[in-house]
């Protein structure tokens, strides 16, 4: 069972009717295991894909945005690697779904992705200029989401 809860002074309260229903099935006084993760804001996901699209249009190495996304995921360590019998190493990019990459992990990934972009994909690209361009493209207010590039 999973639900969205809001943090209050001495615990958590259901933030949605589905979470309320879930909580009602737990007997009073029962002990439960809790795993806490911050749900990712859809604006963060959208911001990355605007960034991806912008960078794709300004590079020549990758043939598709999917290829560029996979390359960024692998370069930032969001992948599994394993050796083939011939000694080559294969990297399988991780999913970017909310389940696979909660908000805190996404913020870390985004920062690493921008660093990789300005240092490797388009060396010398000004990070602040890139951030302003992406924000302008989507009218994204970083302070609204508590999100900035460091």
Structure description:
The protein is built from five helices and four strands; from the N terminus they run E-E-H-H-H-E-E-H-H. The relative contact order is 0.14. Helices cover 44% and strands 12% of the residues. The chain has helices at residues 17-24, 42-57, 65-75, 103-121, 127-138; strands at residues 5-8, 11-14, 79-83, 89-93. Helix 2 runs parallel beside helix 4 (103-121) and helix 2 (42-57) crosses helix 5 (127-138). The longest helix is centred in the last third of the chain and has 19 residues, at 103-121. The protein has two domains: 1-36, no CATH class; 42-145, no CATH class. The protein is an alpha+beta fold. A two-stranded antiparallel ribbon has the order 1-2. Strands 3-4 form a two-stranded antiparallel sheet.
What gross morphology would you assign? extended
* Average pLDDT, all residues: 88
Q: What is the N-to-C order of secondary-structure elements (H for helix, E for strand)?
A: EEHHHEEHH
What characterizes the major β-sheet?
A: 2 strands, antiparallel
Number of strands: 4
Distance between the termini: 35 Å
Task: Write down the Rg.
Answer: 19 Å
Residue share in helix: 40-55%
Number of helices: 5
